[in-house]
Structure formats: C-alpha cells, structure tokens
Specification:
single chain, alpha/beta, eight-stranded mixed β-sheet, 16 helices, 15 strands, globular
C-alpha cells in the first residue's frame, strides 16, 4: 500500500541542519505503508472529526543522530499495536536505517518509510494528516521547524520535538497556538533533556508540598556528557540570534493571556554558593525555566505565587569561574558570522558521541522546594542526557500522547500540562529516576 507524502533528495543529518527533512525537493510516494492496525478510529485530542489515521506515531528526521537513537528506542519499546513509521527527506537514508533496525529487531523489516521535506508544505500536510502524533528531531528548529508545526496545528495532529530554542517556541505560540486550540492539536515542545527533567522535576517537587500556598523551587543541574554536531549547531544558532530572541519574546507577551489572582515566575538568579547542594550555583538562562513557569501558570497546583530559579551546579569556585568565562566566549564568538560558520564546520551535524562514551555519561537535577512551612529535596537522574535519555524522553512523550489517558488540553502546552503523571510513570519504568531525597 502506498500513499503520496512527498519525496526529497540528499542524506539527512539530524538536529543541526541542514537536517534530515530540510532542503531538497518533494513530490513522491510513501514506501511500505502497510495495513492499518491498532485503534479503529481516531478522534482524540487531535483530529476531532474521528477520521482514521494510518499511523499512531511518525518519527520525522529519523536518519539524524538523535533520530536514529529514537528509532532504535521505538523499535525495542513501542507496543506491538503501535503503528509507527520513519520519515525524512532521503529515501536512501531511511532504507539504510530500516535495514539497520531490522538486523536487531526483525519486525522492523516492513517498517513504513515516509519521504518528505521540511520545505514542502504539501508533503508536511500529507505527513501530518496520516498520523496521530509526529515526533521530530529536525533542527535548528527556527530554520526548519515551522512548516511541520503549522501542518500539525492545521490537521489536529499532536506534535513533539527536541527544541531548546526559546525564539522558536515563542514564534510558534504566536503563529499557531490559536489554530491548534481550534483543531485539538497538542503542540509540545522541548521533549528531551530540554526540558523534560526540569519541567517534570519541578512538577514532581510541587506535588510533595502543600497546596494553595506560595511555593519556591530551585533546580540545580549537573551533567557528565558530551554533545553532537547538531546540538552544537543549534546552540551556536541560538547564541547568535539575541535580537530575534528578544523580539519573539516581546511578541509572545502581547498575545499571552495574563494571570489573574496568581503569579508564576522564573527570574534569573544570581551566582551563589548553595548550602543545600554543597556546590556553586550559576544561573542558567535556558528555555527550561520558561517552560517551568508556563506549567505553573497553567496548573493551579503550583499555588497562588510560584517562583522557580534554574542553576548549573558546579563543585568548585575555579570551575564556576571557568564555566562563566567559557559561556561568555561562546556568546561573543556566536555574534560573528564567519566565526560561527568556522565553528560549525569543525563539528558537523550528524556526528555524535560513541556508544561507549554515552554509556559513561549521566545527569542529575536536584530540586529544593519550600512552602507552607515544609521543605523537600528531590532529584531527577539518568544516563546520557543529550542522546540516549533524550531519545527515550522523546519516544515516550510521543507514545504517551498516542496511548495514555491524559487531561484534555490543546494548543501549545508543556510536558507537565499535557502529560504530567502519566509521562513521569513512563519515564520511571524506562529507568529515569524521580525520587524524594529528604523532607523537612
């Protein structure tokens, strides 16, 4: 069985562009769609007309580094009834990936391949209309991501990605949140290490504290890991777009509804020594605290006045000073286009740490929560944060949207708002730790 969904040229490279799904041309068939399995009809949070969808989950950008890891995770862990497919711009790359998967998991030999291009609106429309959930690793998202968000919002299809780009998230809210609310699509950004451990970790911490009182939560992040070329490209892109990031944030504030009778804040903290963790705490101006604050604004359980601060946790003062200097140098270098291009050429997308290196990698996010005379220490922890665990988080987020009983939500929502307890239980079962370390 074949249906049209566009075709493209060139091998994909995964997050960091030109990515799998970015550039090239479109206009051909989908390979190996196969008979329908699983739920007979789909009305769901998406596709409210009850139309049948061929797939439950489509992985877009599958031939990139993180895309391949996510495909491997789905091959091993997706339930037997899950109808899923690989998508990207290169049929050659997709076929090679399917052969690699089938060598370990024979049931993947007939896995459907959808050839589509991030620059082809018709191909993306057909892709979005074919599935209940799209998971995409194609970045930098500010360059290559909007077409798929628009297609999912229009089709009423749930969407998850790995972006850590605040500019992209803000622009997608302004441009596509309203339509997604109309169609029932859940647009859930930052479903990897950005920002699942932080968003769900703060949510988990709040649940250990009294309700209906002001709450304060601080998060302290430690990692022992390396990064891929795609992540490096995305980070450099973001660092070089300061004015655009500020403008997107300003535009979002014009559209976002104001909280009435409650407050939810994520101010940038100051560098300090944290007695709670015994480390130096450096403020992290990433997307993560913004996501936590948006969850707090949407959920009354965070109380009438919620504040979150987000830090990197560093053991010694020299390390803290060195880290601050390195960040400053990176920001300065990213402002110069020739330097930025030279740095990207040194570590190209599609490259990433070896399996052995990833096996030695780890992350820990410790939270200190206070409110109502109570204090609690919690921790979210796991293995390689940027790749193995990120692929796990993305895949489990997509499966959670496809199969779990969830609160009724639509539009641009966070992982805590859209999936909350259900995703925490999935991640715990998959080996990511959520624990209460101490209550006071």
């Amino acid at each position: 069985m074949e249906t049209g969904a566009g075709t493209g040229h060139g091998a994909g490279t995964g997050p960091g562009g030109p990515a799998d799904g970015a550039g090239g041309t479109a206009g051909g068939p989908v390979d190996g769609a196969g008979p329908e399995r699983g739920p007979a009809a789909w009305g769901g949070s998406a596709a409210g007309d009850g139309a049948r969808r061929t797939y439950d989950v489509v992985l877009f950008g599958a031939t990139g580094f993180v895309g391949g890891l996510t495909a491997e995770y789905l091959a091993e862990h997706a339930p037997a009834e899950c109808r899923w497919a690989l998508a990207g711009r290169s049929r050659t790359g997709l076929t090679a990936l399917r052969e690699r998967l089938a060598a370990r998991w024979p049931h993947c030999a007939e896995l459907p391949l959808l050839v589509a291009d991030a620059d082809d609106p018709e191909a993306l429309r057909a892709l979005a209309e074919s599935t209940r959930v799209v998971a995409t690793t194609v970045g930098p998202y500010v360059w290559y991501g909007e077409g798929l968000v628009a297609a999912c919002a229009e089709a009423g299809t749930d969407y998850v990605d790995l972006t850590g780009e605040s500019e992209f998230v803000d622009l997608m809210y302004v441009r596509h949140d309203a339509r997604a609310r109309e169609t029932g699509a859940r647009i859930v950004h930052a479903c990897g290490f950005d920002s699942v451990p932080h968003d769900l970790g703060a949510y988990f911490t709040v649940q250990q504290l009294p309700a209906d009182v002001p709450l304060r939560v601080d998060g302290f992040v430690r990692v022992g890991a390396t990064f891929s070329g795609g992540t490096f490209a995305s980070a450099l892109t973001a660092l070089g777009r300061g004015p655009q990031i500020l403008e997107a944030a300003r535009e979002r504030r014009l559209y976002a509804p104001r909280l009435v009778g409650r407050r939810a804040r994520a101010p940038l903290g100051s560098p300090r020594f944290s007695r709670e963790t015994g480390t130096w705490a450096l403020p992290l101006p990433t997307l993560d605290p913004q996501v936590v604050a948006r969850s707090a604004a949407a959920l009354d359980r965070y109380g009438p006045d919620f504040r979150y601060r987000h830090y990197a946790s560093v053991k010694t003062l020299p390390m803290a000073l060195g880290g601050t200097a390195a960040i400053g140098a990176g920001v300065a270098a990213a402002q110069l286009s020739p330097v930025r291009r030279w740095l990207m050429d040194r570590y190209r997308p599609g490259q990433g740490p070896s399996e052995e290196r990833r096996a030695r990698s780890w992350f820990s996010v410790r939270f200190v929560g206070e409110g109502g005379g109570r204090r609690v220490f919690t921790e979210v922890s796991g293995g390689d944060p940027g790749y193995d665990e990120t692929a796990k988080m993305l895949a489990e987020s997509a499966l959670c949207l496809a199969f779990d009983a969830l609160p009724k939500t639509a539009g641009q929502v966070t992982t805590a708002v859209a999936m909350g307890d259900a995703l925490i239980e999935r991640l715990r079962a998959a080996g990511i730790g959520f624990r209460v370390a101490h209550r006071g």
